[in-house]
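User: I'm putting together a teaching handout on how multi-component assemblies are represented. Below are the sequence lines for each component of a complex, exactly as they appear in our records. Could you produce the 3D structure of the whole assembly as structure tokens, so the students can see both representations side by side? Please keep the chain order the same as the input.
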Amino acid sequence: GEDVEQSLFLSVREGDSSVINCTYTDSSSTYLYWYKQEPGAGLQLLTYIFSNMDMKQDQRLTVLLNKKDKHLSLRIADTQTGDSAIYFCAESIQGFQKLVFGTGTRLLVSP
Amino acid sequence: NAGVTQTPKFQVLKTGQSMTLQCAQDMNHEYMSWYRQDPGMGLRLIHYSVGAGITDQGEVPNGYNVSRSTTEDFPLRLLSAAPSQTSVYFCASSLRGRDTDTQYFGPGTRLTVL
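Assistant: Of course. Below is the structure of the complete assembly, with chains in the same order as your input.
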């Protein structure tokens, strides 16, 4: 079955880079996503990557995909205190956005 | 646009009670879905709809009913609430539900079943 795993917690200092990691098990994933959840709010789509790509860059965000190892990462450059949130990776298995989410990584950015 | 709205924000039920969680979107999106979020777990898909009159089950549909009589609304019904349904519920919508369509989430409903 599908399973998406993430580390639970990451703490960085403001200005440093953050790297959030995710592993997934279903090799038929078509798209992989990163969502951000701020306290008391719903999820916000940050970026996504098609499964035949290795890397995608979007301003401060860089997504790396290693299909062989089923490993996905999100790098946030110059991390700010406003980046403190929970970050979820998710994979699309059967289309129609029937997403399987990871457990979420809580990012804490200290001044 | 108000985006995706959910009501109520908080709800406490007793075991066996029924209630409906409301979800509405004003973006003319065809695809709508319901997720639940539990501590230490990611979001899990309950039910989804690809258009008015069409619904289907997700990963954890037991204990929940949905209907889609209009494009705008996608209510989630709990017929007989159980403590295992204590969770935060999120509604989401996207244009057609394609993988590349941005999925917009509502602010969530926090439900406690005693």
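A couple of points students might notice: The mean pLDDT of chain B is 94. The CA atoms of residues 81 and 106 of chain B lie 22 Å apart.
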